[in-house]
Design goal:
Strands 1-2-3 form a 3-stranded antiparallel β-sheet, with no helix packed on it. It is mostly helical and about 200 residues long. It starts with 6 loop residues before the first helix and ends with a helix. It has 4 helices and 3 strands. The longest helix is centred in the C-terminal third of the chain and has 61 residues. Bound molecules: zinc ion (ZN). Zinc ion (ZN) binds next to loops.
């Protein structure tokens, strides 16, 4: 994803530079009118807005990317059980719609899709399903030791889910808000660029 300025944003900055350079000459010639000053103010305001929008864009995407990369699936070859000889070769989608990594084992020369998802979004329903299955198994455990270990594992998973859920929803919300701001900013940039272009033509006539 291109996190740099978009082409219309760049066009706008070029126009702003044009008007600023022209203003320098007008100042020297003592011909800078109020209308032009207002135009320069509007240029400054929108440039500042765009800069800060751009910083937000980078930050929100970086946080999102960090989340995407946080899951270590601990995959190992189902045949030789080695984890050091496998190489990620792609991404699979499970019947449930979860994305998981596909690997190739260089030793066994087989490819396989790992069952656990490769991202925290899909990890939530995956662990939820796992917890459900473990809860069903609980009744079959006889010894107190088994029960205690089982309970501990369940508690850990529930804890992890409780920690992960708010992080994911916060990131989703930020991405949603950013998408709304992107639209607003694009509209603003488009309108102002048009205005500046008309002004430029008027000045050069
Ligand atoms: Zn293997």
């Amino acid at each position: 994803m291109d996190l740099d300025f978009k082409s219309e944003e760049r066009d706008l900055f070029r126009l702003v530079t044009y008007f600023k350079k022209r203003a320098e000459i007008l100042i020297i010639e003592n011909r800078l009118g109020d209308e032009y000053k207002q135009l320069l103010d509007a240029c400054d305001t929108l440039s500042t807005q765009l800069q800060s929008h751009m910083q937000q864009r980078i930050q929100v995407h970086a946080e999102h990317q960090q989340l995407l990369e946080m899951v270590n699936d601990n995959a190992k070859c189902p045949k030789c059980q080695r984890l050091d000889l496998i190489k990620k070769i792609g991404v699979d989608t499970s019947p449930q719609g979860w994305k998981s990594n596909r690997y190739k084992c260089r030793r066994c020369n087989i490819t396989f899709a790992w069952s656990a998802p490769n991202n925290p979004w899909d990890m939530i329903p995956y662990v939820e399903q796992f917890v459900e299955q473990m809860e069903e198994k609980s009744s079959g455990l006889v010894s107190a030791e088994e029960q205690s270990a089982h309970q501990q594992a369940l508690d850990n998973m529930r804890d992890n889910l409780a920690k992960l859920r708010p992080v994911i929803s916060a990131s989703d919300l930020k991405m949603k808000e950013l998408a709304v701001r992107e639209l607003q900013m694009a509209e603003l940039v488009h309108k102002f660029k048009k205005q500046l272009m008309i002004e430029k033509i008027r000045l050069e006539d």
